[in-house]
Design goal:
Transmembrane segments: 26-47, 59-79, 91-114, 126-147, 159-176, 188-211
Structural class: mainly alpha
Keywords: Membrane, Transmembrane, Transmembrane helix
Number of strands: 0
Distance between the termini: 20 Å
Number of helices: 9
Largest sheet: none
Strand content: under 5%
Radius of gyration: 20 Å
Pfam families: NrsF (PF06532)
Protein name: Membrane protein
Organism: Stenotrophomonas acidaminiphila
Length: 213
């Protein structure tokens, strides 16, 4: 079949686009991925033993708030990149603002801390495992998120893969807050951001293969 014949065939019987297709796909993919990630956390990591006490501390909610802000920003970008012809430029602010606020706050905390406290704030107690734990918890979310994105016909596959990976990582970070004992902003600014970058990088590599439609 020649190209013009294929075009004529497709044009003769166009399939209507389902309304709210993106909302339906992500409305299924994200809760399912979050449940699987939470199950993985409970099975492999467990909740932090002082979660009830920690949950009344402002820094716990600041940590969760950063993860939630990154999740919302990544979802905005991913929704735009999932559909052809959608402008994305303004959506990047949803990711840049939380990062700048975290890094600015972490820099201020380090500036005010004494010299012998700074390294402890950066490394915490779990620096060896934090980023890899977030990446591990993001795996089920990457599966469900990539399924949602692929069904919406993305055209910029590497960029869409990166945003889908970041979305999975942000959701996994939110889940990981239930286990992580770290309460210092400099730690999050380094190790949480590194944990977010791992599924993002995996998404860049996997996007052209897994998001092709």
């Amino acid at each position: 079949m020649k190209t013009h014949e294929l075009i004529d065939l497709l044009a003769s019987d166009p399939m209507p686009v389902q309304r709210h297709a993106a909302a339906r796909r992500f409305g299924l993919a994200l809760p399912l991925g979050l449940l699987m990630s939470l199950g993985l956390l409970l099975a492999g990591f467990g909740l932090r033993p002082d979660l009830a006490e920690a949950s009344i501390q402002p820094m716990f909610w600041a940590k969760a708030g950063f993860a939630l802000a990154m999740f919302c920003g990544a979802l905005w970008v991913t929704l735009r990149l999932s559909r052809p012809g959608q402008a994305v430029a303004a959506a990047w602010s949803g990711l840049g603002i939380p990062l700048l606020l975290l890094w600015g706050g972490a820099a201020a905390v380090l500036w005010l801390a004494s010299g012998d406290e700074r390294l402890a704030m950066l490394m915490g107690r779990s620096w060896r495992s934090c980023a890899f734990s977030i990446a591990l918890l993001s795996l089920p979310l990457m599966g469900t998120t990539f399924w949602a994105v692929r069904g919406l016909a993305p055209t910029r596959l590497r960029l869409a893969g990166a945003s889908a990976g970041l979305l999975a990582g942000a959701a996994a970070t939110l889940v990981y807050c239930l286990h992580c004992p770290e309460m210092d902003a400099p730690f999050w600014a380094l190790w949480y951001v590194l944990g977010l970058s791992l599924p993002t990088a995996a998404g860049v590599m996997a996007g052209p293969r897994l998001l092709r439609w």
